[in-house]
Amino acid sequence: MRVLRGRDEEGSIAPAVPVLALVLLLLAGLVLDASRQLSARARAVAYAEEAARAGAAAVDLDAPDLRLLPQEQVAARVTAYCAAVAASGAPVVDPASCFRGTTAVGDPSGRRTVVRTHVELVLPASLLGIVGVRELRAAGDGSARPFEGTREEDAR
Fold first, then answer.
1. DSSP letters of 15-61?
2. Which residues 6+ apart lie within 8 Å of 62 measured at CB?
3. How many angstroms separate the first and last alpha carbons of the chain?
4. Buried (b) or exposed (e) across 50-63, using 16+ Cβ within 10 A?
5. With 16 labelled, which of 6, 40, 76, 98 sits at a CA distance of 20 to 30 A?
6. Cα separation values, 49 from 7, 52, 128, Å
7. Which residues are bridge partners to 115 per DSSP?
8. Does an H or E element contain 104, and which?
9. Which secondary-structure segment (H or E) carries 64?
10. pLDDT tens string 69-123
């Protein structure tokens, strides 16, 4: 028995293979780089929180109440922490821009002053470089205030 064909269909899948391979590669790039960016965001938040704690540790030991040193000294501690993180190999964009300021919250005496920080990381993209995405950015904010005591009542 003889099968009749109108056209020769051999090799008709060959043009689709590179397109499918590229689509699968881009999908893998999205998964891989998105997970790296989420991880970098968690690291940025952790660095920002630690930088805020470093700034909140700048307590004036001569004051009778829990009061921060002048803002310049708080900023110096935050910047020093961010610079140390950058020196350890973390891709911190600009350690000098980590400090965002201090804010008095609900207490005119300055006892509840909050130190605010912002850390931005930049990572090289891995597979998304195929489509022109060269870097991934992740940012995190942190805040901390001076704290004394070990009981819950001391935190208020």
1. THHHHHHHHHHHHHHHHHHHHHHHHHHHHHHHHHHHHHHHHHT-B-T
2. none
3. 92
4. bbbbbbbbbbeeee
5. 6
6. 68, 5, 30
7. 102, 144
8. strand 99-104
9. none
10. 888 999 999 999 999 999 998 888 888 899 998 887 766 655 568 899 999 999 9
Sheet bearing 99-104, strands edge to edge: 99-104, 113-124, 135-144
Q: Is 118 helix (H, G, I), strand (E, B) or coil?
A: strand
Q: What distance separates the 2 farthest-apart alpha carbons in the chain?
A: 105
d(CA 156, CA 78): 24
Structure tokens at 92: 């911190």
Question: Which residues share a beta bridge with 118?
Answer: 141
Q: Tell me the one-letter amino acid at 142.
A: G
Residue 126's CB is within 10 A of a number of other CB atoms, namely 14
